[in-house]
Amino acid sequence: MRLGKNLPLSLAALTITTGLLITTASAEAAATPAAVASGIDTTVDGGSNLRGGPHLNSYLVGTTKGKSEFAVQCYKRGDYYNDGKHHTDVWYYGTVFDTHDNPEHVYYDVYSWGGNVNTPHDPPAGLSKC
Predict the structure, then answer these.
(1) pTM above 0.90, yes or no
(2) Which helix (H) or strand (E) is 31 found in, with range?
């Protein structure tokens, strides 16, 4: 079942849940200076390897078939890689919703190299370390 034009129902539910958590975290942030930052919703490029850890030799969980939704929970510094366009040691952790796979596939608890994840910079401001 889908909600909206391109959003899987599970991503919509995660977004709603995350929104509730962000509201709670924001209230706590006002009360305590050591509040935990929230995750972000973004995309990961097609053909991206999804791994069990932030290293090039970590277990390969799968490869995205096309540009996919990525609910990023946090980031970790791991292996540095330079593909000629991007170079970083930042890896993002979270859940990927690959709607280009047949059938559609959800990858839970995976890492993707930062050069394949669409963020303004690595890591984006406010994103927590894993």
Answers:
(1) no
(2) helix 9-31
Residue 127, token pair as written in the block: 């994103």
Written as six digits, the tokens of 54 are 């932030």
Work out how many domains the chain is built from and give that number: 1
- List, for residues 62-116, the tens digit of each pLDDT value: 999 999 999 999 999 999 998 888 899 999 999 999 998 888 999 999 999 999 9
The answer to the question of residue 88 being in a domain is yes
Asked if the structure places residue 121 within a domain, the reply is no
> How far is Cα 105 from Cα 28, in angstroms, rounded to an integer?
35
Contacts of 40 (CB under 8 A, 6+ apart): 72, 119, 124, 127
Domain span including residue 85: 2-116
